[in-house]
Amino acid sequence: MKTEDAGSSVLETWTVEEVAEAFDRNEIVLIDVRTPQEYMFEHVEGALLMPMAFFRAEKLPGQSDKRIVFHCGSGVRSEKVARAAMAAGCDRIAHMEGGFGAWKAAKKPYIGTNMATGAPTPMG
């Protein structure tokens, strides 16, 4: 995990492995900030959807029970959202390096779309 101090806040950049392990142990809430269309086509099973276009940092819950880790397609949008959360007062926030593309490249499980039927299908 990489960390960056930004005043009174810390931005953490987690690897896919770190996210997958913490997610499996139910230690984090994984929030997907891609569009609803991207999420519907393929997503990490159990990740929550909070599209960047509708993101309101002040509405985030506290992190006393589970840490929040954002992800997007490549890591660019999730970093922007994480920085917005820091600006809204989150003192420690994280995002996943490389986004969903890195998740798939690491052969982690996800829900995709069966192109023949349109049905959600486990992948990876």
Automatic annotation (TrEMBL):
Molecular function (Gene Ontology), one example: transferase activity
Annotated InterPro entries: GlpE_sulfurtransferase, Rhodanese-like_dom, Rhodanese-like_dom_sf
Keyword field: Transferase
Domain Rhodanese: residue ranges: 24-112
PROSITE patterns: RHODANESE_3 (PS50206)
Record-linked CDD domains: RHOD (cd00158)
Pfam families in alphabetical order: Rhodanese
SMART domains to which the protein is assigned, alphabetical: RHOD
Gene3D superfamilies: Rhodanese-like domain
SUPFAM superfamilies: Rhodanese/Cell cycle control phosphatase
Protein name: Rhodanese-related sulfurtransferase
Origin species: Salipiger marinus
